[in-house]
Write a structure and sequence with these properties.
Blueprint (H helix, E strand, L loop, with lengths): L14 H14 L17 H32 L11 H24 L2 H5 L4 H14 L7 H12 L14 H20 L5 H29 L10 H12 L1 H13 L1
Length: about 260
């Protein structure tokens, strides 16, 4: 059976087109896990500078947590020493050495199961639709799976002109996208890229990140209606205009904070 409408090529004015364009832009500026704080790099663009900033913030959080763990472990192993802050220069050097070793091990583990490698098994459009299904139907009571898929299709069709609604998604599109998504998860699980015990953690981590991102993007979509620079735009055009004005990675980061408030 052929389909004139495909979920990986949605109507250009739809909310799904907005989500997919936003994901493409955000992913283009995502930095790999390095395990080190990145220094000043001349000539970076606005969005590259923001990516470095977020990378360093994440790295600082990891290092602080591992340093805290190192102090607790050393205090237990060496009860005769005073590990209360401020530490002596000798104990500081000892803690730093143990922390660096922990950071090295942690980053080896993270790189081995890099989230981006896991996502390579998943189609971006199916991944977005799966996250939308979970986000949109979490607090919605649906009498059947078909009803749930229809709700998600209607949500993702927002923005399409009324006289073009026949070009939107249906419940069957959502069903097939979810099937494709789960097939990707099974392929990742069956591969030898990740330890078997890590698959579920990577899957849940990916879904959690996608849910947060979809929630933030949904907020940006709704806020655009009140912005004179954006209110006439929908779909892919809206995503690219937001990026041109302020940078989508930055906007999504701030919208994530507002959505969680």
């Amino acid at each position: 059976m052929g389909y004139s409408v495909k979920f990986h090529k949605p109507h250009s004015s739809s909310k799904l087109a907005f989500f997919l364009a936003a994901y493409e832009i955000i992913d283009a500026f995502a930095l790999p896990v390095t395990g080190v704080t990145l220094g000043s790099i001349p000539g970076l663009s606005r969005d590259e500078l923001f990516a470095v900033q977020k990378h360093n913030e994440f790295q600082a959080i990891i290092e602080a947590k591992l340093r805290e763990r190192s102090i607790k472990e050393l205090a237990k192993a060496l009860p005769m020493c005073d590990f209360s802050e401020p530490l002596s220069p000798e104990l500081t050097a000892y803690v730093d050495a143990v922390t660096i070793s922990k950071i090295t091990v942690h980053m080896c583990v993270v790189r081995y199961g890099d989230q981006r490698d896991f996502n390579s098994f998943l189609d971006a459009d199916a991944r977005v639709i799966a996250a939308c299904r979970d986000y949109f139907t979490r607090d919605t009571v649906c009498p059947s799976a078909t009803s749930r898929f229809a709700h998600v299709a209607s949500y993702l069709n927002e923005g399409i002109p009324k006289d073009e609604r026949n070009l939107g998604l249906t419940a069957d599109h959502i069903r097939r996208a979810e099937k494709l998504y789960l097939t990707g998860v099974r392929k990742a699980s069956a591969s030898r890229v990740f330890p078997r015990e890590q698959i579920e953690l990577l899957w849940l981590d990916q879904l959690w990140k996608d849910l947060r991102q979809i929630k933030a993007l949904d907020l940006l979509w709704r806020e655009a209606a009140g912005d004179t620079r954006l209110k006439t735009l929908k779909g892919e055009a809206l995503a690219r205009r937001i990026h041109d004005l302020r940078g989508l990675p930055y906007c999504v980061d701030r919208a994530t904070e507002r959505a969680a408030a």
